[in-house]
Specification:
- It is a single chain.
- The chain is α+β, with helices and mostly antiparallel strands.
- The chain has a single domain (about 10-140), classed as Thiol Ester Dehydrase, Chain A (Roll), CATH 3.10.129.10.
- It is about 25% helix and about 35% strand.
- The protein has helices spanning about 10-20, 25-30, 60-75; strands at about 30, 40-45, 80-95, 100-110, 115-125, 130-140.
- The longest helix has 16 residues, at about 60-75.
- It is globular and about 50 Å long.
- The protein starts with 8 loop residues before the first helix and ends with a strand.
Length: about 140
């Protein structure tokens, strides 16, 4: 049985920084909603790189945001010896996130087993839902 401590405090913030520092989230400028609460979600400004050419956010950019927010929601339930990778995702885009707007995504850990985690993630522009994702993540050893 794993006796490593859970990700909290500076360890949780470091893991969030790792997720946000990956090439895609970093290029898109995805950031935490609240620096003091990494599990609270992430924000994407719909700018040039995130645009779809028709005045809204590209589904790929929104997918990256949803993925990051899902990981952030799960991170407090991981130990320092664990990481998680998505092996299944179902995403529905229900509304346009217009250019120049902020999209906020946050997740809820629905269930965690020793090897799997089930996370629901919702993205909003203001109070309007723009996308929802259901992620299944495999819990794997952290080798970073």
């Amino acid at each position: 049985m794993d006796t490593a401590p859970l990700l909290t405090g500076p360890l949780l913030r470091d893991r969030a920084a790792l997720a946000l520092g990956l090439p895609l989230p970093a290029a898109l400028g995805i950031r935490l909603v609240d620096e003091g609460d990494p599990a609270g979600g992430a924000v994407l400004e719909v700018g040039d790189l995130a645009a779809n050419g028709a005045g809204g956010a590209h589904a790929g950019a929104l997918s990256v945001l949803l993925e990051v927010a899902g990981y952030l929601a799960l991170a407090p339930a991981l130990t320092t010896a664990e990481h998680a990778v998505t092996h299944s995702a179902a995403t529905t885009f229900v509304s346009v996130a217009a250019g120049g707007r902020s999209v906020r995504a946050s997740g809820v850990l629905d269930r965690r087993t020793s090897r799997l985690a089930f996370v629901g993630v919702t993205a909003h522009v203001g109070d309007r839902v723009v996308a929802r994702s259901t992620l299944v993540k495999s819990v794997v050893p952290f080798t970073g």
